[in-house]
Amino acid sequence: MDKVRRNLLNIFRTRAHEIDMKSASLAMGRNHAYLHQFIYKGSPKHLQPADRKALAQALNIDEELLIPTEPEGGRLVLEEGDFVPIPAYDVVASAGHGKLIQQENIRYHLCFQRNWLSRVSNAPTSELAIIHVEGDSMEPTLSDGDTVLVDLTESYPRTDGIFVIGYEDHLMVKRLRIDPVRQRLAIISDNPLYSAVEDIAPHALNVIGKVIWLGRRL
Questions:
Q1: I need a labelling partner for 37 at 20 to 30 A (CA). Which of 45, 71, 94, 154 fits?
Q2: Do 70 and 137 sit in the same domain of this protein?
């Protein structure tokens, strides 16, 4: 019996006075014998993402307890819906003095685990994008050649953070500092060799989105 089935058996045994397999199956929108067959007969082999989510909600548990993590034949078993392809655009955001947008074609896709994405962003996956960083003004936080994941729903900064912005016809990735009292912004470079640009009106910036993850080659 794999780890997911053992987890479920333990939950149903310790919480028998609260919920059983039949009621949990019905809460998932399945027939009353669904979980009994899954646990004891191995059918289906793995829970589908929608079933995992519904069952986790019914049992009030972390959905990760229902994700298969044990290798079969040396390979990790994951359902097709566990990963989401996020487009990487042919756009470079400069961390130096800025670079004009020249093309916005999709170059490739990177796949991220759906559950991980839901933890780092509330944005629908269609509102996430990958771009590349150029320059050294955000060192040591971001380096030349880094890959960043951008939440495109964060187009109006409410808190300080690192954003992809359009400013004076350049696309840049910079830290924004917000003055909520004066309703003004400052563009900050983490590299002390670069000066900040202060006292900017929000409408003077085109905020593309907020950086929520970076990938880097070692």
A1: 71
A2: no
Q: Please state, in angstroms and rounded to a whole number, the distance separating the CA atoms of residues 156 and 211.
A: 13
What global pTM score does this model have?
Answer: 0.62
Q: How far apart are CA 41 and CA 35, in angstroms?
A: 9
Q: What pLDDT, in 10s, does the model give residues 75-96?
A: 445 555 678 889 888 877 776 6
Q: What angle do CA 164, 120, 112 make, to 5 degrees?
A: 90
Q: How far is CA 112 from CA 41, 88, 129, 133, in A?
A: 31, 12, 12, 19
**HSE (side-chain half, CA atoms, 13 Å) at 79:** 16
pLDDT digits (tens, 9 = 90+) for 105-152: 788 888 898 888 988 999 998 899 999 998 999 999 999 999 999 999
